[in-house]
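WARN retry 2 of 3 for item q-0093 after timeout on previous attempt; input resubmitted unchanged.
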Amino acid sequence: MKFSKKYFVIFVVLFLIEVIIAKYTTGFIRHTVGDYLAVMFVYSLIKSVFNISVEKALLITFIISFIIEFLQLSNLQNNFPEEYSKVLKIILGTSFSFRDLVAYTLGIISILILEKTNHQS
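OK item q-0093 returned
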C-alpha cells in the first residue's frame, strides 16, 4: 500500500462530478457518461491506495464494475431493509444493461490510453 496524492485528487474530482451527474442530470449523461466515469472513479481510488501496475488496477476495476452490473440481475438491492436498500441502489444501480457494460469497457480503454500516453511523455 502506498498513498498517491495525484490519484486521490483525481478520485475526489470524479466523485464530485459523479454526485453532480446523479443529482442534476438524466438520460444519456446520467446513464452512459456516469457509467463511463464510474470506472475512472474506481480506478483512481484503487491507484490512490495501492502501488500496483496500471494493468492490475484496470483488471480489478473491470472485475468490480462488471460484478456490480451483473449483481443487478439478482435484485440484491431490494432484499435488504429500506435504509440499506437506498444505498445499495445508488451503488449497484437498479437494472442490468449491456449499454452499461459498453460504457465501462470504453472507460477502461480510455484509462489505458491515458496512462500509456502519460507514461510515454
